[in-house]
Design a protein that fits this description.
By secondary structure, the chain is α+β, with helices and mostly antiparallel strands. It has one domain. The protein is built from six helices and three strands. It has a three-stranded antiparallel sheet with strand order 1-3-2. Helix 1 packs antiparallel against helix 6. The longest helix has 12 residues.
C-alpha cells in the first residue's frame, strides 16, 4: 500500500566552490577500493530528484542558499575540521599527507584577505505528493 500524501525535505551541498574542492582532495586521499557503482547521486539537482521521485507522484522544488565558513586563517579552519568533522577526523591518517594540498585549496579560495571565509552554496529540496 502506498501513502497518498507525503513530503520529503533534504539539503545538499553544490559541488562547486572552495570547501567542496578541499573535501574532494580529502576524499581522494582517503579513498578505499570501490565496489561496483557509478558517480554519486546528484542530490542538489532538481532534474535528478524529479526523475527519482516523480514516478512516485512527487513534485520537486529547489531553493538555493549559502553559508560562509569562517576562521582566523585557512590553517585554523583546516585544524578545526581535522579535529572535529567526522569525515576528516576518521580519515586523518590518510588525509594528513595531503594537508598542504588542502590548505592551498583553502587559501586560494579564501574570500577574506584579513582572515578566512569560504562561502558554500547548497540547496533545500522539498518533494511533496498531495
Amino acid at each position: 500500500m502506498t501513502a497518498e500524501r507525503g513530503r520529503i525535505a533534504l539539503t545538499a551541498w553544490l559541488p562547486e566552490g572552495t570547501i567542496p574542492a578541499a573535501v574532494r582532495v580529502a576524499r581522494q586521499a582517503s579513498a578505499r577500493p570501490q565496489t561496483a557503482g557509478g558517480p554519486p547521486f546528484a542530490w542538489h539537482n532538481r532534474d535528478a530528484l524529479s526523475a527519482l521521485l516523480g514516478p512516485h507522484g512527487f513534485e520537486v522544488e529547489i531553493a538555493d542558499d549559502a553559508i560562509a565558513f569562517t576562521a582566523a586563517s585557512a590553517a585554523g579552519d583546516l585544524d578545526v575540521e581535522l579535529g572535529n568533522h567526522p569525515l576528516w577526523f576518521a580519515e586523518r591518517e590518510r588525509i594528513e599527507p595531503v594537508r598542504d594540498t588542502i590548505l592551498a585549496v583553502l587559501e586560494e579560495g579564501n574570500e577574506d584577505p584579513d582572515a578566512f571565509r569560504a562561502t558554500s552554496r547548497y540547496v533545500i529540496a522539498t518533494a511533496a505528493r498531495s
